[in-house]
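As noted in the main text, all predictions were made from sequence alone. Below is one such record, for DUF4167 domain-containing protein.
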Amino acid sequence: MKRMRNRHHRSGGGGGGASRGNNGQIPLNRNHVFESNGPDLRIRGTAQQLFEKYLQLGRDATGTGDRVQAEAYFQHAEHYFRMLNAMNQAAQAAQQERAERQRNYEQARQERRDARDRAEQDEDETPPPAPASERRPSERRKRVEKRDEEADQDDED
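Prediction:
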């Protein structure tokens, strides 16, 4: 019988974490939910939520006098703090890249407008085509004119 998987089952082994499916890289989505296996408990939440939770747990442990447990919580808090910084830097880089693309797009658009305007000005400055009577004679007309000239010369002789 084939084993069915429901939507909560994750294939590929046990345990949660940020590295599955991301080649060990940090997901750059601020809303990504992590499953954190802390020193003595498991917490789910975004990087911001986990940072704040571990920071609070570290303060509580410090207040109760458990320095070792407090240090473990603070190290977890520092991990999520670094993840938040990486996400923020990636978001800033993406925003700068979008702004640069937008500037390039606007600049190219303006250059196309300028080129179109110059072409329209050049078109306005070119004289209209000459009337048919002033245009270069066609081959047939040339032959007729040549024949007429020859006829005139014959008449003169």
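The helical segments are 47-64, 67-125, 139-156. The chain has a mean pLDDT of 80. These features were considered when defining construct boundaries for the mutagenesis experiments described in Section 2.9.
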